[in-house]
């Protein structure tokens, strides 16, 4: 059975347009979930909104949005006022520009969706847009639309027989990288230490295969629930031991399989037969350092 579309509208660039449907690309429905219970009675508990002054529950019809302008001083907003203020969507994803993926820092990426033709009649126009982008190796930036009750800007790229549309964070939502890296000192690494690090990277070279990565947290929860259902004792796991690195060079040598011998990284690479550099297909979109300035 085909999945249910989360949104339907039109994809348009220039005078070319076609009906499209948007489907979620990820889902959390298969994750294990828990309910909150009363430890004494075993009954589920309900969440209530309580008045911070009176301590009494506030029914849904008496709840209203408020914006704090001063300490404990709010202006209230009626649902009708909020609805009237939000621009109406005409259900059109208008392509504003085509550009290279490397022009967009993936720190702005939010959530991805699958974009497919919504009708048989739209398949040719859809394929034209998709193959045009694929041939030119570009992505499309669609103008902001109201999607899931919010204004959205989307990055659209070719993917297999369809398109992937990724919502983008707005500039004000992305913190400047300088804020996170402010206290990181400038350091230059060179010589044998850098050669060893490069050698280790070469020997660990691989490709991204999503199925090879397990959700160990989810698996542990499933095993825990299974043990509880079967009445089995739950063994406590010992925390992993992580050795403190006191000699960075020695740790690099051990990682490179040199185990203390004084041979250089080139000799170590010859022993393992993995010094050969490999090339891989570049990602559809590559990451570059955030260009946003602090402040």
UniProtKB/TrEMBL annotation:
> Which terms does the UniProt entry file under GO BP?
DNA recombination; double-strand break repair via nonhomologous end joining
The similarity annotation says: Belongs to the prokaryotic Ku family.
Q: Superkingdom, according to UniProt?
A: Bacteria
Q: What is this protein called?
A: Non-homologous end joining protein Ku
The family database entries (Gene3D superfamilies) matched by this protein are listed as:
2.40.290.10
Name the HAMAP family on file: Prokaryotic_Ku (MF_01875)
Keyword Chloroplast attached: no
What does the UniProt record say this protein does?
Answer: With LigD forms a non-homologous end joining (NHEJ) DNA repair enzyme, which repairs dsDNA breaks with reduced fidelity. Binds linear dsDNA with 5'- and 3'- overhangs but not closed circular dsDNA nor ssDNA. Recruits and stimulates the ligase activity of LigD.
Origin species: Rhizobium lusitanum
Pfam families the UniProt entry points to: Ku
Query: Domain Ku, which positions?
Result: 55-186
Annotated region Disordered: the residues are 254-295
List the GO molecular function terms. double-stranded DNA binding
Which proteins does it associate with, and in what oligomeric form?
Homodimer. Interacts with LigD.
Q: What is the lineage of its organism?
A: Bacteria, Pseudomonadati, Pseudomonadota, Alphaproteobacteria, Hyphomicrobiales
Enumerate the InterPro entries for this protein: DNA_bd_Ku70/Ku80 (IPR006164), Prok_Ku (IPR009187), SPOC-like_C_dom_sf (IPR016194)
Q: Which UniProt keywords apply?
A: DNA damage, DNA recombination, DNA repair, DNA-binding
């Amino acid at each position: 059975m085909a999945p249910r579309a989360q949104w339907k509208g039109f994809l348009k660039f220039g005078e070319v347009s076609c009906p499209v449907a948007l489907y979620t690309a990820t889902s959390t429905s298969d994750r294990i979930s828990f309910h909150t219970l009363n430890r004494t009675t075993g009954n589920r508990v309900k969440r209530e909104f309580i008045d911070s002054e009176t301590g009494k529950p506030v029914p849904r019809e008496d709840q209203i949005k408020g914006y704090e302008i001063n300490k404990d001083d709010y202006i209230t907003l009626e649902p009708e006022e909020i609805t009237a203020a939000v621009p109406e969507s005409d259900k059109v994803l208008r392509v504003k520009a085509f550009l290279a993926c490397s022009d967009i820092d993936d720190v702005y990426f939010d959530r991805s969706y699958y974009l497919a033709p919504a009708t048989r009649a739209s398949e040719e126009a859809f394929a034209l847009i998709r193959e045009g982008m694929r041939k030119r190796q570009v992505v499309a930036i669609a103008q902001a639309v109201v999607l899931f009750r919010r204004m959205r800007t989307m990055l659209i790229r070719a993917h297999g027989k369809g398109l992937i549309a990724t919502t983008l964070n707005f500039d004000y939502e992305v913190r400047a990288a300088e804020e996170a890296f402010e206290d990181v000192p400038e350091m230059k690494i060179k010589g044998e230490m850098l050669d060893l690090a490069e050698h280790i990277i070469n020997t660990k070279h691989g490709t991204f295969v999503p199925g090879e990565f397990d959700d160990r947290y989810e698996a542990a929860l499933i095993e825990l629930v299974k043990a509880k259902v079967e009445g089995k004792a739950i063994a406590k796991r010992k925390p992993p031991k992580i050795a403190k690195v006191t000699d960075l060079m020695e740790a690099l040598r051990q990682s490179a399989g040199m185990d203390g011998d004084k041979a250089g990284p080139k000799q170590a690479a010859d022993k393992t037969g993995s010094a050969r550099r490999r090339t891989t297909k570049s990602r559809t979109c590559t990451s570059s350092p955030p260009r946003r300035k602090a402040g």
